[in-house]
Design brief:
mainly beta, ten-stranded antiparallel sheet, nine-stranded antiparallel sheet, 27 strands, globular
Amino acid sequence: MVRFRSFFLAILLFGLLITPAFRVSGQASSDSTVHICVEPTAPEAAPPSLITLGGSQLLGLVIPQDAKVTVFSGPASNLTLHLYEIATDAQNGGYRAARTVNRDMYGVNNVSPGARCSGRYSTSLTGDLVASDPAFVSRDRAIIIQTGPAVDTAVVDDFVGVLSVSIRPSGSVEEAGFIRDFQIIQISGGYIDLSLSFLDRDTQVVLIANKDLSISESFDGQDWLSPVVANARSSFMKQLARLNPPLDLFKLMEEGFIRIYPHAGLFHNFPAGGYLRLMLSETPAAREPQFREGVSMRPLEGTRANYYMPHMMNEVAGALFAPQNTAKVHRIDPNTGQLFIIDPKPGGTVEMVIQSWLVEVVP
């Protein structure tokens, strides 16, 4: 009997030791969790949104509208922000840091989050958090958030992948006023936890990544479901087309300034009171096959790719239409990441910049 009791106690202790590997209680630890308060500058009436990210101590965020952003983290997190202008990168289908706007903005204690943020999100934005000074973002800027020890500039500048999140409000006037689109930049390996405090019920979201993606979800911070793997672009487009009402992938990208190659995507419910664990491969995103001088390219099926004169990027000079139009790669600018073609109009000799995220090499 004593021998049986000892065996039972040994099994019980072993079960207690391994339980954390199968169940997660709460989001990522306070050392890596950051709360990002986004206050759109136009229209002024739009309420602030709170995006919470965890799991990674180094990541980036693109808010594709003019907004004021304040970042909050735990008191021992060594919060540092870096603000960059970004440019699209043809070969990885994502972004690159084009110019430094402001580096090494350190979080400080006892900074007021502002009446609009603190009043709406008082549960999350407690007085013991470290806060950043406000940073002003737009669709052409990325804010890099770092909560671990300092890293060198080269690591911060190396964007490994990009994931866009588009929130699809289901009729709530309150919800529709919040931010609807943002993009997360992966800089290091591992997972990223995402929660959205302003969603008060399960809400449909569209996730688009420039590389392989899978997610799992947690309700009320517990009980992970099995990971769901993103669909390849063609299957994903068919999934969106079957919705009621149907969604057009490329219209969604245009409206949300999602300028990344849509390698894979997911249409999913965001769990109210829970969060999503985003799992992107650690390998840097890369277009396959790559763009090389002289190879033929075509627009992705279902869209068109605009091209522009380099000094007139706000005025469309023409477009390639899928599936009938092709053009040859003239060159990729190593400094800007832009993809150049020669004007495909008859007799064209002028270099044009084409929307590289909407074209692919002809196999």
